[in-house]
Amino acid sequence: MTLENIKLDIDYVRSQFPAFNDPLTKDWSFFENAGGSYVPKKVIDKLTEFMISTKVQPYAEYSMSKKAGENMDKATKLFAQMINAKENEILIGGSTSINLYVLSNALKKFISKGDEIIVTNQDHEANISPWRRLKENGAKIVEWKFNDQDQELQISDLEKLINNKTKILAVTHCSNIVGSINNLKEISKLAHKNNIIVIGDGVSYAPHGFPDVKYLDVDFYTFSLYKTYGPHLALLYGKEEILKTLPNQNHEFLEGNYPYTINPGGPNHEELVSLIGIYEYFDNLFNHHFKIENITIREKISRINNLISDHEEYLANPLLDFLDKDENFFLIGKSKIVDKNRAPTISFIHKKRSSKDLSNYLVKNNIATRNDNFYAWRCLKSLNIDPEDGVVRISLTHYNSKNEVDKLISLLNNFS
Ligand SMILES: Cc1ncc(COP(=O)(O)O)c(C=O)c1O
Questions:
Q1: Within 10 Å of residue 36's Cβ, how many Cβ atoms?
Q2: 195 CA from centroid of ligand 1 (Å)
Q3: Can you say whether residue 333 is alpha, beta or left, with left for phi > 0 and alpha for psi between -120 and 50 degrees?
Q4: Does residue 97 have its Cβ closer than 6 Å to ligand 1?
Q5: What's the chain's average pLDDT?
Q6: Which residues of the chain are in CATH 3.40.640.10 domains?
Q7: CATH number of the domain at 47-277, out of 3.30.465.10, 3.40.30.10, 3.40.630.10, 3.40.640.10?
Q8: Which of 88, 96, 162, 302 counts the highest number of beta carbons within 10 A?
Q9: 176 in ligand 1 pocket by Cβ < 6 Å?
Q10: Mind listing the pLDDT tens digit for each residue in 71-106?
């Protein structure tokens, strides 16, 4: 519970998202948020404004161009402040998968024959394949496997995998199947003692609270902005001291202009500017719930994070409890959220029926979900779950309501 005992005003939250009043969406309970979230009106407004008045090449002296450039810089600056990074530590790319391929290409320079890279079997493939490909550059790939009993990654197992050849560790902050929050701070501490570069995948974490990257002390961190209430873009954070040393992957004459030189091209301008709308949405949320002045952007985000996680815990715990206790279901991951140790990304299978049957039944009842492996096929294979039929995943976020979850539990209870 937050210090002030303030609860998230769910009616206010939902009033900010036009999707809840749209004829196509309004009758659905949307539980596929880990696949991509709805966007608040502020984001749509920023996108529209850019397209109407500043859809020109930015950074020239005429007013529309000047404004376009200013807003692009403003969006980057705001996001840097929101995650406690410096402005020149932020890169905006097309997706997390693209960001990680671009990054792995840049980090090749640190890899010599026989060096080791640790990947997990809990991650989405986006944070596995690019690193596994570095075996073409002579790297040996080592897999950090989750524990079969509770599906958790144990730091004690990681310790056994590290040696003086280990150069890179790619690990998810939160698995998009298991839902547990991995202790990136502890993981980074251990890795840095051994001079290992840590790449954190924050895609399943960030929609439930923007992270403080300096607190985590990761070297790189990426998340998909289309899952944090924005357009189809993804953010990549990198520590300045490492970014500075990476090769220019952009035009030759741009040499020295890091971080822009890491990406082979620039970001989508209009979508970048619409990110200001995410900040404004969070700022409004803050002002609606708190009457505090003279507070930094990062402090505002921390308070909102707490509000959101209290609400998500309130929504998710009854569903987790139901899935854990009903013997027809196998729930993956922790059966209770305590102290933000799990995201409300809840995957399960029915013990007698296919995930496809269960998902179809839910969809017929206006529950927006699906059965899939969600590109975490190694995780499913390790769980002995057919990656084709996959799991059913209910991924909640702060705009979901108690009524929606109650309806879902009652539908699951009646499925046979
Ligand atoms: C945990 C996780 N990592 C990475 C990705 C890849 O993100 P993107 O679709 O932006 O490439 C996803 C997408 O679902 C994900 O859930």
A1: 14
A2: 27
A3: left
A4: yes
A5: 97
A6: 47-277
A7: 3.40.640.10
A8: 96
A9: yes
A10: 999 999 999 999 999 999 999 999 999 999 999 999
User: How far does the centroid of ligand 1 lie from the alpha carbon of residue 367, in Å?
Assistant: 22
The residue behind tokens 């859809």 is 55
What is the band of 5 on the pLDDT scale with cuts at 50, 70, 90?
confident
pLDDT in tens, 219-270: 999 999 999 999 999 999 999 999 999 999 999 999 999 899 999 999 999 9
Residue 38 pLDDT > 70: yes
Measured in Å, residue 97 CA sits from the centre of ligand 1 at 7
Per-position DSSP letters for 134-178, written without gaps between them? GGGGTPEEEEEPPPTTT-PPPHHHHHHH--TTEEEEEEESB-TTT
Identify which of 37, 97, 372 to mutate to test ligand 1's pocket (most ligand atoms within 8 A of the CB): 97
Fold of 10-38+299-413: Aspartate Aminotransferase, domain 1 (3.90.1150)
Whose tokens are 């969809």? That residue is 363
411 CA from centroid of ligand 1 (Å) = 29
Tokens of 76: 């980057």
Q: What is the pTM of this model?
A: 0.97
Q: What is the pLDDT of residues 300-343, one digit of tens each?
A: 999 999 999 999 999 999 999 999 999 999 999 999 999 999 99
Domain(s) of CATH 3.90.1150.10: residues in the chain: 10-38+299-413
- Please say if the pLDDT value at position 416 is more than 90: no
The two most distant CA atoms of the chain are separated, in Å, by: 67
Ligand 1 in reach of 203 Cβ (< 6 A): yes
Give yes or no for residue 274 CB within 6 A of ligand 1: no
Q: Give yes or no for residue 201 CB within 6 A of ligand 1.
A: yes
Residue with tokens 């990110």: 275
Collapsed DSSP state (helix, strand, coil) of residue 90: strand
Q: What is the distance in A from the centroid of ligand 1 to the CA of 31?
A: 16
What is the reported pLDDT for 127?
A: 98
375 CA distance to ligand 1 middle (Å): 8
Q: Is 314 exposed, middle or buried (0-12, 13-18, 19+ CB in 10 A)?
A: middle
What confidence category does residue 1 fall into, taking pLDDT thresholds of 50, 70 and 90? very low
Q: Is the CB of 234 under 6 A from ligand 1?
A: yes
Residue 272 has which token pair?
């970048």
